[in-house]
Amino acid sequence: MKKIEHIGIAVKNLKDANVLFEKLLGVPHYKMEEVASEGVKTSFFKSGPNKIELLEATNEDSPIAKFLEKKGEGVHHIAFAVDDIVSEINRLKEEGFTVLNEIPKKGADNKLVAFLHPKGTNGVLVELCQEIKAM
To answer: What's the whole-model pTM score?
Structure first.
């Protein structure tokens, strides 16, 4: 894992959270995107080299809706940048981690993503992110 790619924060209302984080960080969000397959709308902020992803559920069955219902607003996941997501998935499986999706899927911000189950990572949902290279 190369670095922390971003920290994901579950929010009830993306519009309100964007206003709050713009005030907090002193910069506007640089990208909003919907990931229909995950039932989520996202908004990204940069603060120096760091990124924050705000996540709002678009339907009541989405993972973010379930997280909000169970835990309320707050840190949802920590994402790590990787060069080769398939190799990293295989390495982590060999180390005994439970991978929630063994085949990477398209995520927000031009990334392939995969998640590790929080039961094996001290309660933290870990996301692996690999930049999708242009052809």
So the answer is: 0.92
